């Protein structure tokens, strides 16, 4: 019974956070939601937040002279957990094509003790981090989890809300690799 209330509370928390983000940033336009092949292009400098478990910040990993692909997820979200393996496969696909970039998975609203081991089990070659707050949802206007975001070498947000195919194409173009 305790686990039911914990799961219910987490779902309710996510719904409230997403509602707050939607109210604060407005609803997405039809162009933003028209499909996975129509990525939203945004130019935003890296916004910092603290990471759980290792006394580091987001800016310690992003904006350090390399492209970075960040997978924002939550351990209580079954789609997020399932997509971790897909993110690992996607990483290998990009590297095989010659793309040079870093890959991070960041669990949002999770403790490092739960999320990081789970991420390492599903995607062992990707740096696994956790943020105990939901601040990344607000800072990067994440409409849902999981969500993959591409950051430029200077920390500029380049792509989000893109399907895997569109994201792959953007990575190859951005990182100078041609397929």
Q: Which features characterize this protein?
A:
179 residues; alpha/beta; Glutaredoxin; 6 helices; 19% strand
Give a structural overview.
With 179 residues, the chain is α/β, with parallel strands linked by helices. It has helices at residues 2-25, 30-33, 78-96, 112-122, 135-139, 164-174; strands spanning 40-44, 67-73, 101-108, 127-131, 147-151, 157-160. It has a single domain (2-174), classed as Glutaredoxin, CATH 3.40.30.10. It is built from 6 helices and 6 strands. It has a 6-stranded mixed beta sheet with strand order 1-6-5-2-3-4. 36% of the residues are buried.
Given helix and strand content, the structural type is: alpha/beta
The N- and C-terminal alpha carbons lie at a distance of 52 Å
CATH fold assignment: Glutaredoxin
Q: What is the CATH architecture annotation?
A: 3-Layer(aba) Sandwich
User: How many helices does DSSP assign?
Assistant: 6
* Average of per-residue pLDDT values: 78
DSSP, total strands: 6
CATH class placement: Alpha Beta
What's the story with the biggest beta sheet?
Answer: 6 strands, mixed
The residue fraction in helices comes out at: 40-55%
Low-confidence stretches: 4-13, 15-43
CATH superfamily: Glutaredoxin
